[in-house]
Amino acid sequence: MSTLVCFHAHPDDEAIGTGGLMAKAASAGHRVVLVCATKGEVGEPQPGVLSDGEELWQRRMVELAESCAILGADEPRYLGYEDSGMVDEETNNNPACFWQADVDEAAERMASILREVDADVLTVYDAHGLYGHPDHIQVHRVGLRAAELAAIENVYLSTVNRDAAIASFAEVAELAAANGEADDAPDAADFEEFGMLEKDLAYTIDVSDVVATKRKAIAVHRSQVGEDSFFLKMPEEIFIKMFGSEDYALPGQTDTGGPVAVELLPGL
Predict the structure, then answer these.
(1) Mean pLDDT, residues 4-23 taken together
(2) Is 3-161+197-260 a domain of CATH 3.40.630.190?
(3) Do the Cβ atoms of 84 and 100 come closer than 8 Å?
């Protein structure tokens, strides 16, 4: 059996982005390891979630451990940096944040984990970090460098099929309008620079058989995902359509002709 390492920026990214792959790999008997660059210190907590005196990062660590248990992964590991916040926020200038980290130094931290767990497969984000988040971009940079240092050959870019995402969110909006409901899902226009074009993808994994597990893992991130979140309110058939597959690209490769459907990524 192989060891899959998924490298993410903040707690909850793992469930949304690679939760299906993690659950399928674990159920197939592979070891699954999650490494989180930060503890999500500057996220926006849902009202009333935190206890008196509790810091957001403390709650998010608990939630991430719950998510990993649901997905069948080891206890989460942390790279030791602070959340950089969204692009162009003042928190980007925090010397301790991941965005400000020296890439080689951070990569050596990550490489030491890859060596320790004897990683066979590593996932990071695409070069744009899905949607331009500084920490996601840094995961891409640091992860690829760490793979070089640890001699990991099977490296995949976790991303989103932009073409499919635009179509799916347009369908959600139409369904909401037809039912006379407010549409709180992201607007399709917001996805014009999100993820990657279908023609540039390498693999797609059908995770519909574990989508309930994936949704449960998302839901335990209660500090970030409220009960009225579109993640949880969405009808099951729409959720499966939108989150029932996961897409991956190969570093430095585009114009692949579209993704090949696989059960698990090569190396697993």
Answers:
(1) 98
(2) no
(3) yes
